[in-house]
Specification:
Length: 95
């Protein structure tokens, strides 16, 4: 997680991918997807952050940090309208 909050995408991705590979059905799989999303967000890789947040939501849509990785890039107008529409129309995003 430290790599993620430092914005070191490559180290975060390598470590998270290894954790996912070792335990693909882990109850806390969301953590690794979310770490990747945060690293991408902090590295200003907004499109990738949205994609990774979408993977995290697939693991557990109840974790609120997912929506930061979705909404923050859109607030900066970095996302195309189609992505904004999808997340705004998503039932979990309206909570």
């Amino acid at each position: 997680m430290s790599y993620a909050f430092a914005g070191d995408c490559e180290a975060t991705f390598a470590n998270a991918d290894e954790a996912i590979r070792l335990s693909p059905r882990d109850q806390l799989l969301i953590i690794w997807h979310l770490c990747k999303g945060w690293a991408a967000l902090l590295s200003e890789r907004y499109q990738e952050a949205v994609e990774l947040a979408t993977e995290a939501a697939g693991a557990n849509p109840e974790v609120p940090d997912i929506y930061v990785c979705w909404q923050r890039p859109m607030a900066a107008s970095a996302m195309p309208l189609s992505v904004q529409h999808w997340t705004n129309s998503c039932g979990a995003c309206r909570a």
